[in-house]
């Protein structure tokens, strides 16, 4: 089976549409979303509708959670964006039934999915929603030991927007360093799938992975999209900081 794993869409409709089109071209059987469908970006309702329709499983992200409850630990830019996102979801496109369906979908999202071999989270194996696992953590052997102790085999995550593979040898392997395909062996791995809607690894192309459970590989795919169009939508909203549009162009 081939599964597409997407994460951190952040209300970026142009990016999500481009990624789903790419997914349709590579023979994927199901799509799993690792959270943060909304927040930062200008099209939260449309992105939610697409995820609800296209993804077999979806995990709760910290921005999804912040739309439901009081935001915790958000910087002022992210806070303004989530309050604006709440208003967009409340005002709703599509009528009261669709508004309620979106809120119900968000409210029922699980914090993680774990079938033993594969664990899917937004943040980390220890804190599925909020904990970041940055590449520099490979220098903290104790922290890595604790995190790997929380998984049986493979853990897939998002949250940092930085794609790459963490190994039990305290390595972080970027997609470029493994020629965009990494073989799944017997050792435990934590795998960040990157970001669809707000890449932060100095590459402004959307990022997602294809997990091939037969070939035992993960393949990183980069997809071009019209980030200028998304940025212009952000600039047109007074409650969305212009920096959120600028960073789409930089990929950081």
TrEMBL record:
Q: Residue ranges of the Calcineurin-like phosphoesterase domain?
A: 1-215
Q: Which family does the entry's similarity section mention?
A: Belongs to the metallophosphoesterase superfamily. YfcE family.
Instruction: Mention any one GO cellular component term assigned to this protein in its UniProt record.
Output: cytoplasm
- Offer one Pfam family short name for this entry: Metallophos_2
Q: Which GO terms describe its molecular function?
A: phosphatase activity
Domain of life, per lineage:
Bacteria
Its source organism is: Rhodopirellula baltica SH28
Name this polypeptide is given:
Metallophosphoesterase
> Which InterPro entries does this entry report, sorted A to Z?
Ap4A_hydrolase, Calcineurin-like_PHP_lpxH, Metallo-depent_PP-like, Pesterase_MJ0912
